[in-house]
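Quick one: structure for this chain?
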Amino acid sequence: MIPYREPTHQELTVLRRIFDHWGIFDYVLDKAILVSEKKLNDSKIKEVCLTTKDNFNLISANASLSHTGMLIGHLRRRSFVPSMAGADLIARVGANYPFVTVNQAAEALVLYGRDIMYGSIVDFGNLDRNNTILIILDEHRVAIGLGINTVPIGRNMQILDKRIVIKTIMDAGHYLRDER
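Got it. Here's what it folds into:
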């Protein structure tokens, strides 16, 4: 049995909408999208991988998808959560995606899994709604994590500096902490 497959028509429609939301629709047009289903605690998680069309033709049943493609996120029903590799891809080639840029002190805290306070945010984009999954960037616009905003953030906000406005859901430091 092959551990991956091409997305169904419904999954492909959802993924195209999501890629458009994250601003990478044009980038993935010439790439092959593969889905791998995993079971975790009585629920199915669909891992979404991206590879080139040439690599897709070379993949055999024994080849690991991680050797030929990149895990860009997880699909659950109609929601998509990018992986750290997917967040990095979106930060490099995406356009008009939800993000926050944090200062150097907050960057260190995010890499340890801590949440972000309003006073640590240097720049942001597309965060006018609550509970939006966003990419956390450092001052050099490199993806360091994923988060979800707890309040809508806008240019005319009157928020106290000590209030947590972004919950960190995944960070680049996770890989280093779990290395042991």
